[in-house]
Specification:
Strand order of the largest sheet: 1-7-3-4
Strand content: 15-25%
Amino acid sequence: MIDVVKLTAVLLQLEDVLENLSGEGQLEGEQQEKAEADKKLLLRCANLVVEEVAAEYLPLKATELLSSDDGNIEYSVFSRRPIEIYSVRKKGSKCRYKMYPTKLITEAGEVEVCFSYVPQSVGIDEELDFAEGKLTPRVLAYGTAAEYCLVNCLHEEAWVWDKRYKDSLFGALRAGRAVRIPARRWS
């Protein structure tokens, strides 16, 4: 996450935050407090963007073995907060299931659940759940810059960063998919 925060600080020209992150600068008093507050705000904004990407654009998937006596599995027993359930299997065979606001109802016993989840907020030195590849720190930095500007009532700048964020996000998502052109038919 530190790469995202540093890149966002560069994009927004927050030099005091960069000095604070590097530990090289000699910030003191109010300047140090402002840099620390901006760093914390950038981290919160980055976590919001990561959560948005996972929930709406690039789902993070996991599979877990869960069990229940009556087929009621509370979402709180999952290791990660589920967004969507893709499949439920029991001994390799698909099971019927139904999602409710607080629980999943399926067959009793041990089942394997495949689902997408919301990533937990991470600290500045922690790694993100996203694999290297499609989602680069630059894409997340654009989104973080948009959130930061929005929080600070910089609406024009927020709009510009949000456009760059969405354009680069959709470009990254599209890049992984091959374009298929249907064969021509001659009749």
